[in-house]
Amino acid sequence: MNVDAVNAALLQSNELLPEALDISFKPIPAVLVIAMLALFLVVGYLFKVADTEGMWVAGRSIGNVENGMAIGANWMSAASFLGLAGLVALSGFYGLAFIIGWTAGYFVLLIFLAAQMRRFGKYTAPDFVGDRFNSDTARALGALTTILIGFVYSVGQARGMGLVGLYVFGTDYATMVLIMMAITVAYLTLSGMMGATKNMAVQYVILIVAFLAAVYVVGLTGGYSTVLPQIEYGALINDLNSEFSEPFANSSFFLWIATAFSLVFGTCGLPHVLVRFYTVENEKVARQSTVWGLFFIMILYWGAPALAAFGVDLYDASQYGPTYAAEGGMSGGEGDLIVVLAAQLSSLPTWFVGLVAAGGIAAAIATTAGLFITASSAVSHDIYTNIINPDATQREQVLVGRATIVVLGAIVSVTALDPPALVGELVALAFSLAAIVLFPMFFLGLWWENTNRQGALAGMIVGLTIWVAAVVNDLIVPFSDLYGQVFPAIGAALVGTPLVFAITIAVSKATEEPPEETKRMVRQCHSPEPMSRQESAEDVATDGGETPADD
Amino acid sequence: MTQNPSHEPDDTADDLAADGGRPSPPSDGADGGRPSPPSARTDGGVAEREADVDYLDTEINILKPKTPFMRDHLKQVWAGFVAWTILTWGPVTATFLAPELMTQELPIIQFPAHYFTVAFVAPTSSLVLAYIYTRRRARLDEKYGIDHSTPAESEGGSSPPEEGAAVSDGGEAE
To answer: What residues of chain B, 130 to 149, have a C-beta less than 8 Å from chain A?
Structure first.
């Protein structure tokens, strides 16, 4: 197993500034980006909400194509728009683990969780864990995990926005991170989920147009492709350095599988993805919008390796090349910006490169918005209202939610000033956490009615411990080679998730079965009988009564 | 393994009876408000027979489905999952096991086979499988007379959809 390759990639990321990037203030791209941000604020304002239902789940009124676009925009962050092509360019065949990891999970989500989650009908992931396992401790652990995921994931976005901002505004990296995060936070505190969801459709259109424009135009001007760059780049692969495509040159088979596994099952455990299923009319729309969502995601994912191949070829030919040099070569910062760089190195006009850059910013803002909304509801709804102050008024809840967004924005900005990894890698860490801690709870909680509180608590605590230790070992204070090999931070779920499953099942079997109401709630999630829009499984199973937590 | 072979199609009633240690809920009282699915179809009587099942009284176990609906649904789920496992993890595993064979150039598109199957075929297969599953699941809904387009009104004070629609208009409520 080649941990060195990963460490090397991580070290590379310290070369933060992309040397090949033209850093200067560019008026037309700047106007484009500012106009786009203004548009987000206007849409957000028009659909602003003042009540909690609207703040978090958009009144459950979103249709399937629109929700599919929201799934796509929410999903495709700076990690997809920028980081993915960067990983494919820098890590070669290993980068493809991210393509599979960030798409294939939607099928698992669709067949096992999407409709059942919609029928469960609760606001947030911690709500699910808390209500299903009848435990405020589980709710708090779920909320903590949600916040951690939002944090790690957003650091990647802030890095992406800062780097792209450099191209457009040309100041320095730190200033760009701070400005971009300030805009995101301002927009979110003004608009809430409804505005964010309406914006996501807009953001999806901007980011996909920008990305496809880059793929097609760079392919055409470079003479690489004509009508189908997503397939035509294949002919280029054998002309590139063998590092681009040689199997397992940059990682072992184990690390490849572990990474893809973590991303696939992380997809099924990410709270900001699941919350999208609460925003739809019924379970049928939940299923259809998953398919639409995956389609909208694939439109970008089919093109990303093509753009990576074009980018590597252009970089090789430029004064900065070759890409895979022992000394120098493409830096982490340049890899993260390969999408923008490819357009710049093709000598395309600055307004066009600016459009691509704007797409990157739209991608980052859309996802950060989704993450912050989810994290803020974890604090205000799950921790504050459910545990600290059950009598909280709606106004207090919204206030706490907004304060959370501001505080989280500040912490993320500071961390992003010196991020420990590439955009794609940072985001992958969040996935491995979701795959280890939340996915087993969702899956067992919905598919095995005898999963109980003790089992869930044991599983979540073990899962959190495995992940924290893996991140500390890989990125902060290395303490064990063996641990790093079994639980590489990015791929900790391959061994971690089955372990958490086993522990949850064993402890549940060894302890008392959950109460009958809980079982009825699980059954209601699978019953074929239609439910009304505002109804939750708990309403049906307990005839509308709230069940207080057991602990 | 997708099914517990010991379950005959008609043992649902036995399972329900075997559950009998649990007092059956006063189903007319607790659930009676919920209309049963529109089961007045005549296509083989499946819907009608399912209408007799109280889903809130039937155990959920992914390995041992207890109702005909769950059995049919899980058949689709597991078939999809097996296909997905092969298509998603097959190409990369084949590349590991037979690198020589997999790195050969494909005719016409000139891709190295491993790159094309991993970067294109595997992720695209998830989309195709998702589409097929959704179609088949919709047909299953039809077979069991499930219609989500006219959601059942809940009993016991849930807000009617109209109220939700007002809220969803963007907070005009306040």
So the answer is: 130-131, 133-134, 137-138, 141, 144, 146-149
Region B95-116: mean pLDDT is: 92
Q: Identify the pLDDT of residue B8.
A: 38
Contact B157 A544 (CB under 8 A): yes
**Residue with token string 């941000």:** A37
Q: What is the maximum span of chain B, computed from C-alpha positions, in angstroms?
A: 68
Interface contact flag, A60 B61, Cβ < 8 Å: no
Q: Rounded to 5 degrees, what are φ and ψ at B154?
A: -85, 155
d(CA A312, CA A88): 10
CA pair distance A485, A45, nearest whole angstrom? 49
Q: How many CA atoms lie within 13 A of A443 on its CB side?
A: 28
Contact B128/A at CB under 8 A: no
- Indicate yes or no: CB of A50 within 8 angstroms of CB of B57: no
The one-letter code for the residue type at A306 is A
With CA atoms as reference, the chain B residue closest to A295 would be B127
Own/partner long-range contacts of A62-66 (Cβ < 8 Å, ≥24 apart): A62/A197, A62/A279, A62/A280, A62/A281, A62/A289, A63/A280, A63/A281, A63/A285, A63/A289, A64/A280, A64/A285, A64/A288, A64/A289, A64/A292, A65/A289, A65/A292, A66/A197, A66/A201
Q: Does B157 touch chain A (CB under 8 A)?
A: yes
The answer to whether B134 and B80 are in contact (CB under 8 A) is: no
| A380 backbone φψ class: left, alpha, beta (φ>0; ψ -120 to 50) | alpha
Contact B133 A111 (CB under 8 A): yes
Helices (H), chain B: 12-18, 27-30, 46-51, 68-97, 99-102, 113-116, 122-143, 161-168
Tell me the nearest-neighbour CA distance from A39 into chain B, angstroms: 17
CA nearest neighbour of A310 among A352, A349, A340: A340
Q: Say yes or no for a CB contact (<8 Å) between A532 and B161.
A: yes
Contact A112, A443 (CB under 8 A): yes
Tokens read off for A162: 């800062």
Whole-angstrom Cα distance, residue A306 to residue B111? 12
Three-class SS of A429-448: HHHHHHHHHHHHHHHHHHHE
Q: What are the residue ranges spanned by the domains of chain A?
A: 3-48+63-423
Beta-bridged to residue A62, according to DSSP, are A280
**4-23 of B, contacting A, C-beta below 8 A:** 22
A121: left (phi over 0), alpha (psi -120 to 50) or beta: left
Helices in A418-527 by DSSP H: which ranges? 423-433, 439-447, 453-471, 481-486, 493-510, 516-526
> H/E/C letters for each residue in B93-143?
HHHHHCHHHHCCECCCCCCEHHHHHHHHHHHHHHHHHHHHHHHHHHHHHHH
Rg, chain B, Cα only:
23
pLDDT given for residue A7 in this prediction:
41
8 A C-beta contact, residue A106 and residue A294:
yes
CATH class of A3-48+63-423: mainly alpha
Find, among A245, A158, A172, the residue nearest to A18 by Cα. Answer: A172
Neighboring chain A residues of B101 at a CB cutoff of 8 Å: none
Q: Tell how far CA A116 is from the center of its chain.
A: 21
Residues in chain A where the model's pLDDT stays below 50: 1-14, 50, 54-56, 58-60, 544-545
Paired strand residues for A448: B61
Question: Length of chain A in residues, anyone?
Answer: 551
pLDDT of the residue at A198: 66
Q: Identify whether the C-beta of residue A138 lies closer than 8 Å to the C-beta of residue A452.
A: no
Higher pLDDT, B18 or A326: A326
- The predicted model gives B126-150 an average pLDDT of 87
**Angle at CA of residue A279, ends A274 and A281, nearest 5°:** 120
